[in-house]
Amino acid sequence: MTNFEEEEMPSCLDKGRIEALTDGIFAFAMTLLVINIEVPESSFALSPYVLLTNLHSDFLQYMIAFLALSGLWIAHHQQYNYFKSVDHWMVGLNISSLLLIALMPFSTQFADTYPADDTASAFFGLNLFFIGLLYTLQWIYATRDHRMVSPALKQDLISRILWKNMLIPAISLLVVILSLLNVPWVSGLYFSIPLIFMVMHGYRSANKGSGR
Fold it and tell me: What is the DSSP track for 110-153?
């Protein structure tokens, strides 16, 4: 065996580099969301107010996607705040999630272009579902036997973050199922995600204040 083979290869899997790449992909995807909203052409028959109100579905889909990506970005940094290191498996899970995050502008525009089509709505929901699922798997992988987190990290906190991570894929899967059942206005369920996060945070703060 040569000396080169005996030497341990330096790792480029620095946690900070992964976070920087993730921030860049999130910023790019979130910016593309608004770029996909096309300014309507000038019309003598319709006033600018009417032209703007005709874009209500575009803005609604934009808000849903932007809020969802914001929640995922926050979840990512909350998780990585506890990670002491990463390995090739974690990088693979993270890259897979970035692949789907970069797809979000397309799935958003696809759902907006065909608002009455169940397939388009389901495609958007599945995009979010698999991103959320991958983030959940990252947390499970990192915290199993405290593989990448501090041994002092309490199981109660691990479980609480796991439940928070499962919220987006759970809501997304519910929306997909209801969309395929032709339930109207089911996309409004996405707006429940930040509300549930707020309730969970308020419940946690109340418990801490009461000393539980």
Answer: HHHHSTT-HHHHHHHHHHHHHHHHHHHHHHHHHHGGGSSS-TTS
On whether the CB atoms of residues 124 and 157 are closer than 8 A, the answer is no
What's the pTM value of the predicted model, to 2 decimals?
0.83
Q: Is 156 helix (H, G, I), strand (E, B) or coil?
A: helix
Q: What are the b/e assignments for 172-187, b being 16+ CB within 10 Å?
A: bbbbbebbeeeeeebb
pLDDT grade for 201, boundaries at 50, 70 and 90? low
Q: What is the DSSP letter of 181?
A: T
Interatomic CA distance for residues 72 and 92, integer angstroms: 17
Q: Residue 56: which H helix or E strand, with range?
A: helix 56-82
- Which residue from 181, 180, 64 is spatially nearest to 122, judged by alpha carbons? 180
